[in-house]
Amino acid sequence: MAQQYKAPRGTFDILPEDWPYWNYVISKAREIAEIYGYREIETPIFESTSLFVRGVGEGTDIVDKEMYSFEDKGKTDLTLRPEFTAGVMRAYVEHGMHTKPQPVKLFSIGPLFRYERPQAGRFREFHQFNVEAIGSQDPALDFEIMSMAWQFLEELGFKGLSFQVNSTGCPKCRPGYVKALKEYYMQHYDEICEDDKRRLERNPLRVLDCKNPKCQPVIANAPRITDYLCDECREHFEALRRYLDAAGKRYTVNHRLVRGLDYYTKTVFEVWAEGIGAQNAVCGGGRYDGLVEEIGGPPTPGVGFAVGLERVVMMLKSQGVKVPDAPSPSVFVAYLGNQAKDEAVMLAQKLRAHHIPTVLSFGKRGLKGQLRNANRWGVKYAVILGEEEIERGQVTVREMSSGEQVQVGREELLGWLEERLNG
Ligand code: HAM
Fold first, then answer.
1. Are residues 104 and 148 in the same domain?
2. CATH of the domain at 283
3. Rounded distance, CA 70 to CA 193, Å?
4. What's the CATH number where 338 sits?
């Protein structure tokens, strides 16, 4: 028996009936990017594996467990991108973008790949609207980035938006915090899960993110990073909060928010929305002032975010948000008899050559069946060609909504349709 193929686990087809949602979301992303002055960049879907190992960081779930890595036929180690940021920074360095006016403001839309356990809103192939602003340390830029994410989601119809924000410090102040956190955890070593014991070694900040019920009381009393920030990081965080206050955006300082990528410094944030839940942030981002240098470029600060588009589309569908329909063809060409069919095929082609969206039936179909088909397509006009019409050099045009029929000369048809469809 033939093999029954299915889309690989954690992947899905975006079917024609889904595209109105996707097109709506993608055009909103482009609109928002333009309003804020961001330009599009497309980087390759695969990059050197080491770019992600260095950029995202060893010890993160993404690098340790989730990358689709392979050696190609030329023995190069490559990885399907699990996120955009590292690739965009590689492009920034490779194209010498530090010589352009800073910050360089870039956005991308496309697929990413992570070997995760599939569940609602979590896939192995997913899509993001990703935004990066590279080359400025100004907290006003963090505010711009956060506002952009907010406006995008708000204009799409998300309800109950709120920011979760935290500062993760910098290489100057974070080690002091990590030391205090580890000391505290060592005092509670018997009360924490095995995963946390491993995290303490490899990626200590991630203990704050642990979902195990057993660890929650320990997390609740853990030292807070905001008490350990150096002057520069504290002032940066205070300035950002002043901007958020002034703009009246709802936010919570979440001391547990550390995010799953190693490159973050200072600001980290997520956007949560009603009905999405803490495990399913619709957007995540933050500042990454050491990343460009880490991957071999000049010291360059940056800040950005990414919105998961599957989660956005799920929200639009579940809240019944109306999106523009995919356009239907305008004209259906129907025929009666073989000679008429030959002419109908040519007529449909002529109309399309003049950019009138036109469809017709294939195979042997009676007129009734063809008109049912025309109805299903949702066309405005059916053009009917029979032997008689051909002899008279005419066609019958039926307006589908009213059922009214008129005779139009073959030579006049194109102009007649153009006038009514484009006029
Ligand atoms: P992230 O938090 O890993 O950040 O992903 C951002 C968003 O992508 C998430 O909030 C979620 O909506 C979506 N997402 C992530 N993984 C999946 C998945 N497996 N299935 C469906 N959706 C998913 C980043 O990727 C950073 N590069 C964002 C960034 C840009 N930071 C600075 N600049």
1. yes
2. 3.30.930.10
3. 33
4. 3.40.50.800
The answer to whether residue 272 is domain-embedded is: yes
- With a 6 A CB cut-off, is 266 part of the ligand 1 pocket? no
The token pair at 241 is 């909060």
Same domain, 357 and 408: yes
Whether residue 163 sits in one domain with residue 82: yes
Q: Report the nearest-CA residue for atom 13 of ligand 1.
A: 308
pLDDT tens figures, 81-94: 999 999 999 999 99
Ligand 1 contact, 311 CB (< 6 A): yes
**Is the C-beta atom of 174 inside 6 A of ligand 1?**
no
Closest residue to atom 23 of ligand 1, CA basis: 308
| Residues 307-332: tens digit of each pLDDT | 999 999 999 998 888 999 888 999 99
Name the token pair of 386: 């029979």
336 and 303 belong to one structural domain:
no
Domain that holds residue 363: 331-422
In short, whether 301's Cβ falls inside 6 Å of ligand 1 is no
Directed axis angle between helix 309-318 and helix 139-156, to 10°?
A: 40
Query: How many CA atoms lie less than 13 Å away from 306 in the CB half-sphere?
Result: 20
Count of domains in the chain? 2
* Helix pair 139-156, 231-247: axis angle to 10 deg: 40
CB of 12 sitting under 6 A from ligand 1 = no
371 within some domain: yes
Helix (H) or strand (E) holding 130: strand 125-134
Q: Is the pLDDT of residue 277 over 60?
A: no
> Ligand 1 atom closest to Cα of 270?
10
User: 30 CB under 6 A from ligand 1?
Assistant: no
* Ligand 1 neighbour 308 (Cβ under 6 A): yes
Residue 118 sits in the same domain as residue 154: yes
d(CA 307, ligand 1 centre) in Å: 6
